[in-house]
């Protein structure tokens, strides 16, 4: 499911939301822990804005989410805790 539609804005949003739910974090905590505000992050998860490269790099640095996963749904290099829950 998460690999379908690759970089479609709704697919990217669904992947972000699923990871956040797996980590059991609120939008605010997920965003702020990565150095983003909830106002910046929310539209990405709600499919209102395309995920910016700057935000994706912050999520990668904080949560180990590969760009290939966020943008294209490739699960090969995901952290084990997240990949097992998918």
Automatic annotation (TrEMBL):
Pfam families: HTH_3 (PF01381). InterPro entries: Cro/C1-type_HTH, Lambda_DNA-bd_dom_sf. It comes from Tritonibacter horizontis. SMART domains: HTH_XRE. Signal peptide: none annotated. Residues 16-70 form the HTH cro/C1-type domain. CDD domains: HTH_XRE (cd00093). PROSITE patterns: HTH_CROC1. This is Helix-turn-helix protein. GO terms for molecular function: DNA binding.
């Amino acid at each position: 499911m998460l690999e379908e539609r690759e970089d479609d804005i709704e697919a990217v949003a669904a992947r972000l939301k699923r990871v956040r739910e797996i980590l059991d974090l609120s939008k605010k905590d997920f965003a702020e822990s990565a150095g983003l505000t909830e106002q910046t992050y929310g539209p990405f998860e709600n499919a209102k804005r395309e995920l910016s490269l700057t935000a994706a790099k912050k999520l990668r640095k904080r949560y180990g989410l590969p760009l290939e996963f966020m943008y294209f749904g490739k699960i090969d290099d995901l952290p084990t805790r997240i990949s097992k829950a998918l």
